[in-house]
Amino acid sequence: MREKKGALKLLQQLQGINITALPETIQYCGSAGSYMLKHPKMAQALLDDLLEAALETQPDFPVSSNIGCVLHIAAVLRERGIKMEVIHPIVLIARQLKVQMRL
Length: 103
Fold this sequence. Notes:
By secondary structure, this protein is mainly α. It has five helices and no strands. Helices cover 52% and strands 0% of the residues. The mean pLDDT is 86.
């Protein structure tokens, strides 16, 4: 999906779930390969902004198509004692398909 917001458009087509996108101003978790190692304070500030915006919506779980972001977000949630699974969009699609097949 090379279209901008393609994953979001796909997820919004799933029945039985509500998808809430982050504000346009929050687009980056701060991991970006070695960025979080070279610039840890800035990476943490970016992630703090993302988590603040994400947790305001009280999601069942955050979803990211970037595995680096999934790992980075999940690690910080664990550090903060927040028990919340961070998943890839394909995992969400697979789970929702299982639910729909049971109906």
